[in-house]
C-alpha cells in the first residue's frame, strides 16, 4: 500500500524546487528588462517539469514576478478558496543585488 505522505503537498520540497529553478535561470545576472520575459518563462517551465517528476496527484499553477530593485516596494496578496487538507501553495522570494523574484506555486489535488 502506498504511503499517505507520498501523496501530500510538501511545501519544503516545492520550496527547494523553486529556489533551484530561480538560481539556475537567474544566477548572478544583473537585471535586464529585455530578458525578464525569458527568465520568468524559464523559471516557470523548470518548476513545472520538476514538480511533474514528483508524480504527485496535483494540478499546478506557477506564477513568477521579476522586478528591478529601485527602492520602490512590491506588494502581493492572494486569497484562496479550496480544501486546506488536500491543496497547498508555496511562495518563494529571492532577492538579488539588482532584482527581486517572487515565484508562487499553487497545487490542487486531482
- How far do the termini sit from each other? 19 Å
What is the count of β-strands? 3
Q: What is the number of helices?
A: 2
SSE series? HHEEE
Structure description:
- The longest helix has 18 residues, at 36-53.
- This protein has helices at 11-26, 36-53; strands spanning 58-68, 88-95, 99-109.
- A hairpin with a 3-residue loop joins strand 2 (88-95) and strand 3 (99-109).
- It is globular.
- The chain is of the alpha+beta class and 110 residues long.
- The protein has a three-stranded antiparallel sheet with strand order 1-3-2, covered by helices on one side.
Please name the defining characteristics of this protein.
about 110 residues; about 30% helix; three-stranded antiparallel beta sheet; about 25% strand; 2 helices; alpha+beta; 3 strands
Fold blueprint:
Elements: H1 11-26, H2 36-53, E1 58-68, E2 88-95, E3 99-109
Antiparallel strand pairs: 1-3, 2-3
Helix pairs in contact: 1-2
Brief summary:
The chain is an alpha+beta fold and 110 residues long.
Amino acid at each position: 500500500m502506498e504511503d499517505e505522505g507520498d501523496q501530500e503537498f510538501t511545501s519544503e520540497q516545492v520550496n527547494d524546487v523553486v529556489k533551484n529553478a530561480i538560481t539556475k535561470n537567474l544566477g548572478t545576472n544583473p537585471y535586464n528588462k529585455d530578458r525578464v520575459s525569458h527568465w520568468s518563462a524559464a523559471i516557470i517551465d523548470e518548476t513545472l517539469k520538476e514538480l511533474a517528476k514528483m508524480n504527485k496527484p496535483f494540478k499546478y499553477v506557477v506564477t513568477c514576478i521579476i522586478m528591478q530593485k529601485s527602492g520602490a516596494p512590491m506588494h502581493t496578496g492572494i486569497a484562496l478558496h479550496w480544501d486546506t487538507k488536500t491543496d497547498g501553495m508555496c511562495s518563494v522570494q529571492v532577492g538579488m543585488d539588482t532584482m527581486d523574484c517572487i515565484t508562487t506555486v499553487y497545487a490542487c489535488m486531482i
